[in-house]
Write a structure and sequence with these properties.
The complex is a heterodimer of chains A (561) and B (375). Chain A is mainly α and 561 residues long. Chain A has a single domain, classed as Cytochrome c oxidase-like, subunit I domain (Cytochrome C Oxidase, Chain A). Chain A is built from 16 helices and two strands. Chain A has a two-stranded antiparallel ribbon. In chain A, helix 4 (77-112) runs antiparallel to helix 8 (205-237), helix 9 (250-284) packs antiparallel against helix 10 (291-304) and helix 12 (357-380) packs antiparallel against helix 14. The two termini of chain A are 36 Å apart. Chain B has helices spanning 2-17, 33-64, 81-110, 215-226, 234-244, 283-291, 314-327, 350-358, 364-374; strands at residues 117-124, 127-131, 137-138, 141-144, 148-155, 160-164, 169-173, 179-184, 189-195, 208-213, 270-272, 278-280. Chain B has nine helices and twelve strands. Chain B has a five-stranded mixed β-sheet with strand order 3-2-1-5-8, with no helix packed on it. A five-stranded mixed β-sheet of chain B has the order 4-10-9-6-7. Chain B has three domains: 2-64 and 81-110, no CATH class; 117-226, Cupredoxins -  blue copper proteins (Immunoglobulin-like, Sandwich); 230-374, Orthogonal Bundle (Cytochrome Bc1 Complex, Chain D, domain 2). Classes of the chains: A mainly alpha (561), B alpha+beta (375). Chains A and B meet through helix 4, helix 9, helix 10, helix 11 and helix 12 of A and helix 2, helix 3, strand 7 and strand 9 of B.
């Protein structure tokens, strides 16, 4: 596919003429669905997750459209309840949880380690199959008349309702196994396949983040599995576990559910912080500031994240003592999160900040995560949480964290590694327009919801009082701007696949190992395992106009002047 | 407890300030609302300082150090322990302060005073019932101003959550157990009640009001309310029952469609059931539908109605029958004693029903059992 001269310009690592890359080395259905190549599995995940993101987004737009006026707008209450349930379940279990680890992580992790693949390539493929199976089983709910429990499946509503709860719960159960396999694979890979020279404190921060995430995936997800299985047993066989009518305890479900689902928040946000650490350093042309603090804070967040689940139940009737303990522990998570933000800012200090699309998303992240994180203080504090719990304030808060932070970081990563994955550059101009639309649309949609919530508007309401109308209208209009932003992104990314400029090996000037192999990488990644230096020492890289990207100083012919 | 000492001047100041809706918080209706608001604005101020700080620094760096011809990056120190400890410890101290205020304010807000007025709250899909010491049940919460009120709450079906934004009060209402909440309303007026825990189709219409009276008005209201229904014509009392038991959430009385069939013109109609049988709507039909709603489900509807066995008295059923007759244009008066007294000819179990309903109290299980046999 590539001409001789092209590939010579591209390669920082010396290569024979036009060696096949992982995309064109083989073709056909089984070359993809039977592949053991982590890069292909990463691409499969990416396509599936973007598909799920589209579906979840359609439900989001439907929900916002219904809410643009009080009373009935486009559908009845039951259908609305199914829409927000599907929006939440799809976005959480099928998009954000697997998003960065399974799609970007799968592709990048072995490359960053200079390895040929993950430790267990077959397990990796298995985890993708389970993902697909989980999605299919979960979406059976749609075919069987929908499900209306909310993505949290709270009992006894979920054991009472006559909608199709079992398929979606089984789907989430299967998706959990997919997540466990990925986590297991990453832990072993990071332990065993690091190249010579890459000590733990020379590990790129993205890998620290994936490592911390993997620990949570392996330790917390089984609890969700058991919980969901018990729920299925209760519905199918009438075993009394959660339903008081059968002698069960409905609040027990909340404890079980959040014991997983709060750590799951960190499954979503930790890898996001990892991406931002990479992007901010590379696009500021500076060594990351406070490497160890960032690395330790990932681990701290992973550990503290396990002990704060009770803050989802401050109004559930749990004791004052328990509420006090969970509130105190919750605030402990705020510190490592704040530390990371300060470190990113310090990294930018005296740098040379290149405002390319990935950096725009990273700056968006810092802005949005700032709001998402700080509004968490209102919810961690007991007295204010009682008022704000289960209102739009919570909805806004977690959208700022899940969507404004985790998903925005996913898009930062997608744009950052896109040239490596596809071998093509996208239009920088359209990339920036897309990023701007997403940023504006997002804030208009969700900032208004903070006001709605503090004014008392409860969440999951089909209808609302007149005094809330103006905020709902603004929020819905914002969601359309957000949607347009994503359409723009889809168009220019697809366009780049066919018309995009061929990507150099190192378009942004990153020092992590994935930038040392060609774009797209050859099937085996590296001819010989590269040796790793400081992943944030960018001083040895220089922009080369002919190459269209960065090359290492030693390999570049001495500059004329 | 010096934190309370610090919070108290803030509280009284906040109380004096405003009762109307602010940009962030709605008007304050309870004595504890001021403390919550004080904390809310305190956290808001800290958040705003940090957020503006972060964004300004970020914008400044982007502008000052943006890539441009002639500008080179300068590799600065890659870490600085004192600096990093500083920006870890200052936020740590701040969150400890926030935690402490949050906790102490919460204790005030969640510990009911000893001498408070008690009201039982029952939540069900999709309405609220408030039961007073004298046995009166109302679908609105009436309370006196200036006196602490404790709510003892439970749910008949799924988890609901009792939420009054003006009081900054929220507590889940859980089936199979009792949860408590308390408040003291400041002055006479009305406040919105929401259900805040998702509970199905009509979640967003599970609304009610807190009506705050002066102490004297409250006593008077309670007295008249207790004898209210007996003084009404049966059909009007029945209409009140339809509201009180939440029937009208699903069954309209004006012919419009809902989760359940409308009650307008229903009396005398013949209905097809999902099991293929059919029956004419008469007194027994209505009674069975209330007590054993899932035995016969009308075609075109889902069997979602809860049973009212043990919750509704025979007297109340009689009033409801009278109301349904009125909505159907059947004007005959329906004194309570005569409920079901006229056997309706073609209905086989009618004779048994006459006996059953003639008895007063312990008949309900027997009643339903005999109907199941007959049907």
């Amino acid at each position: 596919m590539t001409s001789d001269t092209d590939s010579k310009q591209r390669g920082v690592v010396d290569q024979a003429a036009a060696p096949p890359d992982y995309l064109n080395v083989r073709s056909g259905f089984w070359s993809w669905f039977g592949t053991l190549d982590h890069k292909r599995i990463g691409v499969l995940y990416l396509i599936s997750i973007l598909g799920a993101f589209f579906l979840g987004g359609v439900f989001a737009i439907l929900v916002r459209t219904e809410l643009i006026s009080p009373g009935q707008t486009i559908t009845d209450a039951d259908t609305y309840n199914q829409w927000f349930t599907l929006h939440g379940a799809i976005m959480t279990f099928m998009v954000i949880i697997p998003g960065i680890p399974a799609a970007l992580g799968n592709f990048v992790l072995p490359l960053m380690l200079g390895a040929k693949d993950v430790a267990f390539p077959r397990l990796n493929l298995m985890s993708y199959y389970l993902y697909v199976l989980g999605v299919v089983v979960a979406l059976l709910s749609l075919a069987l008349g929908g499900v209306d429990t909310g993505w949290t499946f709270y009992t006894p509503y979920s054991t009472d309702t006559n909608t199709a709860v079992v398929p979606i719960v089984l789907g989430a159960f299967i998706l959990g196994f997919s997540s466990i396999f990925t986590g297991l694979n990453f832990i072993v890979t990071i332990h065993k396949l690091r190249p010579p020279g890459m000590t733990w404190f020379r590990l790129p921060l993205f890998l620290w983040a994936l490592y911390a995430t993997a620990i949570i995936q392996v330790l917390a997800t089984p609890v969700l599995g058991i919980t969901l299985l018990l729920l299925v047993l209760e519905r199918a066989l009438g075993v009394g576990i959660f339903n008081p009518a059968l002698g069960g305890d409905p609040v027990l479900f909340q404890h079980f559910f959040w014991f997983y689902s709060h750590p799951a928040v960190y499954i979503m946000i930790l890898p996001a912080m990892g991406v931002i650490s990479e992007v901010v350093s590379v696009f500021s042309r500076k060594h990351i500031f406070g490497y160890r603090f960032i690395a330790y804070s990932s681990i701290a967040i992973a550990i503290f994240g396990f002990m704060v689940w009770g803050h989802h139940m401050f109004t559930s009737g749990q004791s004052q003592l328990l509420n006090m303990i969970f509130s105190a522990l919750t605030f402990s998570v705020a510190i490592p999160s704040a530390v990371k933000v300060f470190n990113w800012l310090a990294t930018m200090y005296k740098g040379r900040i290149v405002l390319k699309t990935p950096m725009l998303y990273a700056l968006s992240f810092i802005f949005l995560f700032g709001i998402g994180g700080l509004t968490g203080l209102f919810l961690g504090s007991l007295a204010t949480d009682v008022h704000l719990h289960d209102t739009y304030f919570v909805v806004a808060h977690f959208h700022y964290v899940m969507m404004g932070s985790a998903m925005i970081a996913f898009f930062a990563g997608l744009h950052y590694w896109w040239p490596k994955m596809t071998g093509r550059m996208y239009s920088e101009k359209w990339g920036m327009i897309g990023a701007l639309l997403v940023f504006i649309g997002f804030n208009v949609t969700f900032f208004t919801q903070f006001v709605l919530g503090s004014q008392g508007m409860p969440r999951r309401y089909y209808d609302y009082l007149d005094k809330y109308t103006v905020y709902h209208v603004i929020s819905s209009l914002g969601s359309y701007v957000l949607a347009i932003g994503f359409v723009v992104m889809a168009v220019y990314l697809l366009h780049s696949l066919f018309r995009g400029r061929r990507a150099p090996a190192n378009p942004w000037g990153g020092a992590t190992l994935e930038w040392q192999c060609a774009s797209p990488p050859p099937p085996e990644n590296f001819a010989a395992a590269p040796s790793a230096g400081d992943p944030y020492d960018l001083t040895g890289l220089e922009y080369d106009v002919a190459e269209g990207g960065y090359v290492s100083r030693e390999e570049r012919p001495a500059p004329a002047g | 407890m010096d934190a309370v000492g610090i919070a108290t001047p803030g509280l009284s100041m906040a109380l004096a300030l405003l009762q109307a809706d602010g940009f962030w918080m709605p008007g304050r209706g309870s004595t504890t609302a001021g403390g919550v608001d004080w904390l809310f604005y305190f956290i808001l101020a800290i958040s705003a300082i940090f957020f503006i700080g972060i964004v300004v620094v970020m914008a400044l760096f982007v502008f000052r150090y943006r890539a441009r011809p002639g500008h080179r990056e300068q590799q600065t120190a890659s870490h600085n322990l004192p600096l990093e400890l500083t920006w870890s410890i200052i936020p740590l101290l701040l969150v400890i302060v926030i935690f402490w205020f949050g906790f102490t304010t919460y204790l005030n807000q969640s510990t009911p005073p000893q001498n408070s007025l008690e009201v039982m709250v029952t939540a069900q899909k999709w309405n609220w019932l408030f039961t007073y010491a004298n046995g009166w049940v109302d679908e609105e919460l009436h309370v006196p101003a200036g006196r602490p009120v404790t709510l003892v709450m439970t749910s008949e079906d799924v988890i609901h959550s009792f939420y009054v934004p003006d009081f900054r009060l929220k507590k889940d209402v859980v089936p199979g157990r009792y949860t408590k909440a308390w408040f003291e309303a400041i002055e006479p007026g009305e406040h919105q009640i929401f259900c805040a825990e998702y509970c199905g189709t009509e979640h967003s219409s599970m609304l009610s009001r807190v009506v705050v009276h002066t102490a004297a008005d409250y006593e008077q209201w309670l007295e008249t309310a207790g004898a209210f229904y007996e003084q009404l014509p049966p059909a009007e009392a029945g209409a009140e029952m339809l509201r009180k038991f939440g029937c009208v959430q699903c069954h309209s009385v004006d012919g419009s469609a809902g989760t359940g069939p409308t009650l307008k013109d229903i009396y005398g109609q013949t209905h097809q059931f999902t099991d293929g049988t059919s029956a004419a709507v008469d007194e027994n039909y209505i009674r069975d539908s209330i007590l054993n709603p899932l035995d016969k489900v009308r075609q075109g509807y889902q069997g979602v109605m809860p049973t009212f066995q043990g919750k509704i008295t025979d007297q109340e059923i009689s009033w409801i029958i009278a109301a349904i007759k009125a909505y159907s244009g059947v004007e005959e008066p329906m004194p309570a004693e005569e409920t079901g007294a006229e056997p309706s000819g073609e209905d086989a179990p009618a004779a048994e029903d006459v006996e059953d309903t003639g008895q007063t109290e312990p008949d309900q299980d027997q009643n339903s059992a005999s109907e199941k046999q007959a049907g």
